[in-house]
Request: fold
Amino acid sequence: MTAADHPLVGSWRLRRWVARAHDGSESLPMGEAPEGLLVYSRDGTMVGIMGPADRPRFAADDVTGGTVEERARAFATFVAYGGGYVIEGTSVVHLVERSLFPNWIGTSQRREWELDGSGDRLVLTSPPLLLGGQVRVQSLSWQRVRR
Reply:
């Protein structure tokens, strides 16, 4: 099956993000109401953007401005990256070309994927990742928007 024919192809909205520690404790890195968009295109390109629904606005409408505190808070409450992707069985590997977090550029980010029976709910699960100073497995639940 090629990427163009794969059931992951389409666009998805983030519904839930849970981080699980090795002791079983859970946290919600982007709060109770995370928002995000994930797109897997037929040509093998992916883009993911995620953050909490209630991100504070900057005082001014300067896209590259803001106070040091505003910029730090904006960076700390948003994840954005994109590039290519390949599907390897129950894994999807994101080949990061651009990222808000520069350390991910040029890396491969592996996620296990699972679809429900209808093909409209997707769960992506990371290996343990350092996020906010803690190493946890990230589990993101998505709802299909378009095929």
Summary: Strands lie at 10-20, 26-27, 34-40, 45-52, 79-88, 91-99, 108-115, 121-131, 134-146. The CA atoms of residues 29 and 131 lie 8 Å apart. Residues 68-76 form the longest helix (9 residues).
